[in-house]
Every structure is written in structure tokens, then in C-alpha cells.
Amino acid sequence: MLYAVFCYNQEDVTNAWTKEQDEKVMHDLLAVQSKYAEAGRLGPVARLMPTTAATTLRHSHSETIVIDGPFAETKEQLLGFYVIDCASLDDALEFARDLSSANPAAGSYEIRPLAIYKPSELAS
Prior knowledge:
Elements: E1 2-9, H1 11-15, H2 19-38, E2 42-47, E3 55-60, E4 63-68, E5 77-85, H3 89-102, E6 108-113, H4 119-122
Antiparallel strand pairs: 1-5, 1-6, 2-5, 3-4
């Protein structure tokens, strides 16, 4: 089963890292990712740009509004995500624990099973 692992943290914390601190965290996370990639279990990985680069489209009844910034103000922001192929939720939790061990910032990881939607296959 495919799982999405969403990485949340306080943007002001991670944005305050020096270039060297950021490179160290990315290096340590790459070590975790490599283990799963070599086993053919790691799908797309994305690191999101800061919420200051976000644009939100809101639609309510007949009105559509485009605004700068994220959809909601929260303490933690979505910083990125992984897609991983795991036999069970326990395996996905192990991956998230490995990520957490590699990342010194206190954040959280949300794990959700994925349902794949391929519009091109529906048109056939």
C-alpha cells in the first residue's frame, strides 16, 4: 500500500537554520530516503517552498477569490511530503520515525494511506 507522509514544522524554526544546518539535515534525511529508494519503496519526495510563496484559491458558492499565502494560519506548516510503499501502517510509522530521528527540529509527521486516481485510465 502507498502512504503519504506529510512533514510539518514551524517554518520560522526551519527558516532560521544556517545553510550548514540545513545541508546537514538534508544529508541526514537523504540517508533515510536512500535505504527506502534502494529497496524500490520510495516514490516522489517534495520539499515545499515557504508559505510566503503560496497562493490560495477559495471558492464559496458563486465567488472565487485568489489570495496570497496559505489556506490557514497554523503553528506548524506543511513543509514537504514523501510517498512510500509499505506493507503496513507499522512500516510507514517506522519510516516516519527514521525521518524524525534524522531531523533535529521538533515537528510532526502525518501518515495517510493513498488512493491512486488516474484520470487517463478512466477515459479508456
